[in-house]
Target: uroporphyrinogen-III C-methyltransferase
Amino acid sequence: MNRELRREAAVLIETDLTGLPVLVVGPPRLTAATVRRYERAGAVVSVAASPCDMTTEASEGARLGVLVGPAVTWAGARTALAGRCPVVTEPVPDAPRGRVVLVGAGPGGLELMTLAGIRALAEADVVLTDRLAEVGDIAALAPGAEVVDVGKRPGHHAVPQDEIERLMVDRALAGLTVVRLKGGDPYVFGRGGEEVAAAVGAGVPVTVVPGVSSAVGVPGSAGIPVTHRGVSHLFTVVSGHVPLEPHRAEALAGLGGTVVLLMGMHNLLPLTTALVRGGLSRDTPAAVVERGFTPDQRSIVGTLGTLPDLAARAGAASPSVIVVGEVVRQSAVWARRVGAEAVGRALDVVA
Ligand code: SAH
Model:
């Protein structure tokens, strides 16, 4: 480290930034990340795009000057601040310093996120989130970050996918660390692949932090293992967003494993009907697990033949995971159903 850098490092180490007026000078495209960092450390930051834009008030009031950008642009600001306050510099390499981190938030509260996801939030300048309820919690984990809810909210449309990708890439190109927070795992019906491609296409470094997918976690939370020794040694995760085409339903039925359907509640009857037509018995155990990991979580168990009616009567809705296969018998709620059957009561159980 040369003498100048050592001196600058000493200034920063010895300076308590809380409440300190800091003047950041540099092109907005390059200063955004620096501004957020100093604000997060408690400084009161003002910004000037160039030495000519420095107001007298800002330059006289500053207790620390931070010069960002190519070193050739620093001379004017150094002269203006000379003798007033210490100055530190942040050369910016040509390559963009921003990045995108896709984070899987898991299927429920933030407790189900990974430590890598929590760390990414702590380092974020911007969080683009799909999650509905916990924006406040996200803000607490991402202090200083701008939290933008791009998901569907009651009365609001979701921000269109190309707009989300544009926001994400633009902010990263401006030097910001952008966390794209998604429910479950980013790559399971989460459009994670498209967002990674958008970042790569724009030359922005991108990493993906996996998340617990509802496809496995939600059945598990209802006591349904998606595989079980001697019962099912495979599971297939299928989008129920559109009805199953007959050849797919036949293929699924032929596999002899567990079928997990996401986004399928509005198609529950066509989906179960297709699976029966595809070759599964109407008596195949099947369950709807609704609002997993919330205080309102419910399981509705029955068979392919009975589940649509049961779910409709219970008023079950999205978000729910539909599980079809013998593994449903492993759950305590199935045991209660069988117990009820044995004493001649209701054939199916909502719990
Ligand atoms: N990437 C997500 C899935 C997104 S698709 C993941 O890996 O989990 C959205 C679907 O996931 C919902 O329609 C529902 O089928 C399911 N889902 C997500 N969270 C859920 C939850 N807490 N309880 C029940 N189903 C859930």
The radius of gyration is 27 Å. The longest strand covers residues 99-104.
